[in-house]
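Repro case for the chain-ordering regression, as requested:
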Amino acid sequence: MDIPIIRDVLEESNARAQENRALFDRHGVFAVNIMSSPGSGKTTLLAKTIPLLQQRGLSCAVIEGDITSTLDSERLKPLGIPVVQANTEPFGGDCHVGSHLVQAALKHFDLARVNVLFIENIGNLVCPAEFYLGEDRKVVVLSITEGEDKPLKYPLMFRECSACLLSKMDLAPHLDVNVETLKENLRRTNGRLTVIPISAKTGEGIERWVEWIVKKT
Amino acid sequence: MEWREKRKEPPFYPPVNGGRDMHELYIAQSILSSVKKSLPENVATEAVTQVRVEVGQLDAVVSESLLFLFNAIKSESGMPAAELLVETIPVRCRCGACGHEFTLDLPVFLCPVCGSGDTVILQGRGIRLTGISANVDEDTEHGHTDHS
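-- result from build under test --
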């Protein structure tokens, strides 16, 4: 017997994501899912961004999904904000943060007191792009040291995101990378993407990125 | 900041246990779970011979990995005889500027007519269960409704 059917295979994952979404809506939380390759500067970016949001009266929280123990959480500790470490394997191995993991992490927050929630995904340009977590926006951090071709190699990631932060711009004079070619490749992949060149070291673009968040809260 | 001072707990919490995930493994598990939910009551999981899915080309699913993992876990999901058929759906877009619809050979989402990057994906994204085949004889179909 043949059973014809049309069914979303990720319906359970999406159902958890919708529950997260409902929680964010109820408490007025703006949730940003931050994705990138390993080492692009996600945690450094958060450490620079969060104090500026706090200055604007926005309270922040972080779900730290990146692997390798609690190293990233420790780096965020001086900010004095709620951080939930959502990884399970001290030696790594997980490839993305799932909506069920976010759901479990959310139980540890007093969401009524959170304006902006950052979900720092696992460093990986493939798997995290596939899964909706209930977030308001997906953002990809791409460091210019990664080369010009990444948008074309990982199209789903760059299609799914609303903004791309081009990080480590301070290194541009020392690299062969052509930032204009990189931007053109971003446009070829997603013409609607907001591209913000940044440097956590010099502060370039950080204000613009903070404004991008503030306007959406 | 004041709300934090009122709280007794430190701002750091123990890790959340979520289990290990791997992209294609999670998808293989989700396919088997979707099949279970879609089977009529009188069809046992053991009777499933074929599972058909559509995978969008944009989803970056490695078919070989998906097949390998599906075959590795199908028995523990009660479907030892299930064969997975994966159909890859090409990416199709509509241009937001001129309305032209086109299929992508390469992951370049520019309109080939007007060059605009303002494009909307029409198909080629998402993973869908599209059909199940099961070996069901007349007796089983009308008799044994107890195994599911």
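Ordering looks correct now. Residues 9 and 15 of chain A are 11 Å apart (CA to CA).
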